[in-house]
Each structure stands twice: as structure tokens, then as C-alpha cells.
Design goal:
This protein is an alpha+beta fold and 192 residues long. It has one domain. The chain is globular and about 50 Å long. The termini are far apart. About 9% of the residues have low confidence.
């Protein structure tokens, strides 16, 4: 039986940072169950488990658009970083290196591209199905091939947002100033 490459859609956000003016961050997959498809018997769910990445080959993953064509970022040249956290497969990509990658960044930033996906091979015996909950469990990923910005996701509950890192810092700075002001007012009331 030929190996089947799997793709799944998830979330991503755009952020300008000091290390690059064109950095995107997001999740190629999460560990929460989601509706994979619906058939005549109802919804079928899928859940990727954290331990599925324990032995996964992820040493030269690429970032594409719709899993096809141009490579916008790549681990081996340092423009793509992947990590597993409590939420899922986190990605950070620098899209500043080529004109086409900067164009992808702008499409994400403006909300034209709103979803993310990943392509992978499942290890032998790495998938189980629970008939009671109609959930496919992915317990062992053999290799992650790519993470992709996508036009049409399989998981419609995902979203992407664009925000400026500098705006986030300004908001944090404003919140800190407001907190200091409240503390000072409280101290003045207590002392007076």
C-alpha cells in the first residue's frame, strides 16, 4: 500500500519584529480535536497528539503556499523555525528574503490568506480510529514535509491575524503606564 501524504489546515499570524520586518508566526497544527470532514453518518474528527512528534523527522521542512511550487522559507537556511509547545506545532518564518516571500507576507497581513496547513507522513501503525467518538487519532508522525499558507483549509475553524509587533509593545507599554498610575494614586490616597 503506498504511503499517503497527509495535509491539515491550521492558524497563523503575521508579526513585524526587530529581527525581520516580514516575520510570520502561527500553528501548522494544534492538539485540539477538530472536524476533519462530514459524511452521511455525521462528523469525523481528527486529533494530533503531542507525542506524535516524538520521533518525527523535521530537519529540513519547507514553507510553501498551498503545498505547491515556490519555497518561501526553509529550515536549512534559517528562515523557518519549528517547535512543539503545549498548543501544537509552532512555526516562525522570515519572509523577507525574496520578492515572492514578501508578497506572501503582504497577502497574509492584509487577510487575503487566512489559514495554514501542514503536509506529513504517518508512521506505520501511527493512526487509530475511535468508532465511538468518530475520531481519527494521529499518534506517530514519521516526517513533516512542509508547512503552508493556504487558500482553502480543511479545518474551517482556523484563523489568521496580522498584527505589528511594535503595536503590541506600545499596547504593553501603555498598560504598564496605566498600572503605575493606578498604583501611584492608591499610594497617594493611603498616605494622605
Amino acid at each position: 500500500m503506498p504511503q499517503e501524504m497527509q495535509t491539515r489546515m491550521m492558524t497563523m499570524e503575521v508579526e513585524k519584529t526587530e529581527d525581520s520586518n516580514y516575520t510570520v508566526r502561527g500553528y501548522a497544527t494544534t492538539f485540539n480535536p477538530y472536524v476533519l470532514f462530514e459524511d452521511e453518518n455525521g462528523k469525523v474528527y481528527e486529533q494530533i497528539h503531542r507525542e506524535a512528534f516524538k520521533n518525527a523527522k523535521m530537519n529540513d521542512v519547507i514553507m510553501q503556499y498551498d503545498h505547491n511550487g515556490t519555497i518561501f522559507a526553509r529550515q536549512s537556511n534559517g528562515t523557518l523555525e519549528l517547535s512543539i509547545d503545549e498548543h501544537g506545532l509552532f512555526i516562525k518564518a522570515d519572509l523577507s528574503k525574496t520578492e515572492s516571500s514578501r508578497q506572501l507576507y503582504e497577502q497574509i497581513k492584509t487577510g487575503m490568506i487566512t489559514k495554514m496547513s501542514w503536509a506529513f507522513f504517518i508512521a506505520p501503525e501511527g493512526r487509530t480510529y475511535d468508532r465511538n467518538t468518530r475520531t481519527i487519532h494521529i499518534n506517530n508522525v514519521r516526517e513533516v514535509l512542509d508547512v503552508s499558507a493556504v487558500s482553502r483549509p480543511a479545518n474551517d475553524s482556523t484563523e489568521i491575524s496580522a498584527r505589528s509587533f511594535l503595536n503590541g509593545l506600545k499596547e504593553q507599554d501603555q498598560e504598564a503606564k496605566e498600572l503605575k498610575r493606578k498604583k501611584l494614586n492608591l499610594l497617594l490616597k493611603l498616605g494622605g
